[in-house]
């Protein structure tokens, strides 16, 4: 696709998405006297202690206005001739990440605890992040921006339907990946280019699973791997929580940043939030989101392609073990709290 056709497509998309965002933001406020009592009534009948629908609607209002403000600032940067400047857009991205994080905290109870964030330094780094919900990309962005990094993201092209992410994301060093491309060569070349030339403040982030994990997707992914590489499928059959790493994109990123250390970014706390129904059952969040940072020096990353596959799988299996153990611990703690048990058998 040529740059001219890409630009025309972007303009057409934004001609719909930006006004649509404005209608949504204003409409949610104008119709609040209707949806607040209706949502509250439904929640009082179905989940009176949690009020999940009311909480999620409150977040929707805050998100829409944060998005609208981001689009307005992006328009101001364009009008003042700063649409190609990196730093103003990084500051805008950081502002957006902080505000959306705060909105999630105030409405659905999001709390984030990061284990050893200092391991992110120094850059450049390639971040291989677990993917369990849309919110985990927000958490990784907030973490990296708080630590002074300029993140470069591999994002699926469908996310360009979000007008603020579309406009600002295309002005920052990101790549919106076309997962349905018949020829993967140009997409992989773009990933290598994305990671090329990173400095001490740069971090390239990819979600190597390629999609949010669940049991059915994991089984299908392992079946596809078994058709090509039975030994690898057997090795990865131990996965309980994560999806197998999709190798092509990760290899392309590593090829573009041959001196960057690798950071494995895992987390627990977003499980079950990959659908509207799952969010209704989980909101408000009872536990904080725990994030683990694991840094591997580049000297430990094999250059041989076959050895790299085994290395990636081994570290991903270790991360899967950590996720499974943390979730097991949470389930045990929740069960004990629900039963009201204590060493003396009495309620606290």
Structural class: alpha/beta
What is the CATH third-level topology name?
A: Glycerol-3-phosphate (1)-acyltransferase
**CATH 2nd-level architecture:** 3-Layer(aba) Sandwich
Please compute the radius of gyration using only Cα atoms.
Answer: 22 Å
Number of contiguous helices: 12
What's the β-strand tally?
Answer: 7
Strand order of the largest sheet: 1-7-6-2-5-3-4
Poorly predicted tracts of residues: 341-348
- The average pLDDT value, as a whole number, equals 90
How would you describe the shape? globular
For the record, the count of structural domains works out to: 1
Q: State the end-to-end CA separation.
A: 64 Å
Assigned CATH class: Alpha Beta
Question: What does the largest sheet look like?
Answer: 7 strands, mixed
Instruction: Determine the strand fraction and express it as a percent band.
Output: 5-15%
- Tell me roughly what share of residues is in helical segments: 55-70%
SSE ordering: HHHHEEHEHEHEHHHEHEH
Structure explained in plain terms:
This protein has helices at residues 3-30, 32-46, 52-79, 86-108, 135-146, 163-171, 184-195, 215-228, 230-236, 247-256, 276-282, 305-339; strands spanning 112-115, 125-129, 150-156, 175-177, 202-206, 261-268, 289-296. Mean pLDDT is 90; it is low at 341-348. The protein has a seven-stranded mixed sheet, sandwiched between helices. It has twelve helices and seven strands. By secondary structure, it is of the alpha/beta class. The longest helix is centred in the last third of the chain and has 35 residues, at 305-339. It has one domain (3-331): Glycerol-3-phosphate (1)-acyltransferase (3-Layer(aba) Sandwich).
């Amino acid at each position: 696709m040529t740059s001219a056709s890409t630009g025309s497509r972007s303009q057409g998309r934004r001609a719909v998405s930006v006004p649509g965002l404005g209608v949504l933001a204003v409409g949610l406020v104008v119709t609040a006297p209707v949806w607040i009592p209706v949502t509250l009534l439904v929640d009082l009948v179905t989940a009176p202690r949690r009020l999940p629908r009311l909480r999620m609607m409150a977040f929707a209002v805050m998100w829409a206005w944060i998005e609208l403000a981001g689009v307005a600032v992006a328009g101001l940067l364009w009008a003042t001739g700063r649409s190609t400047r990196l730093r103003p857009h990084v500051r805008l991205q950081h502002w957006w990440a902080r505000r959306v994080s705060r909105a999630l905290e105030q409405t659905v109870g999001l709390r984030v605890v990061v284990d050893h964030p200092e391991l992110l330094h120094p850059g450049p780094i390639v971040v291989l992040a677990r993917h369990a919900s849309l919110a985990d990309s927000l958490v990784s962005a907030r973490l990296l921006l708080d630590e002074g990094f300029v993140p470069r993201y591999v994002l699926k092209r469908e996310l360009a339907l979000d007008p603020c992410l579309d406009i600002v994301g295309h002005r920052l060093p990101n790549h919106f990946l076309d997962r349905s491309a018949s020829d993967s060569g140009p997409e992989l070349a773009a990933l290598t280019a994305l990671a090329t030339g990173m400095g001490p403040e740069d971090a390239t982030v990819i979600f190597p699973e390629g999609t949010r994990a669940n049991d059915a997707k994991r089984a299908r992914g392992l079946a596809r791997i078994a058709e090509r590489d039975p030994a690898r499928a057997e090795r990865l059959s131990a996965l309980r929580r994560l999806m197998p790493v999709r190798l092509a994109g990760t290899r392309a990123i590593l090829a573009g940043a041959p001196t960057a250390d690798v950071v494995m970014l895992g987390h627990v706390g977003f499980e079950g939030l990959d659908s509207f129904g799952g969010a209704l059952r989980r909101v408000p969040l009872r536990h904080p989101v725990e994030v683990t940072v694991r840094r591997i020096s580049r000297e430990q990353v094999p250059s041989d392609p076959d050895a790299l596959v085994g290395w990636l799988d081994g570290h991903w299996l270790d991360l899967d073990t950590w996720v499974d153990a943390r979730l097991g611990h949470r389930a045990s703690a929740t069960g004990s709290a629900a039963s009201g048990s204590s060493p003396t058998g009495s309620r606290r």
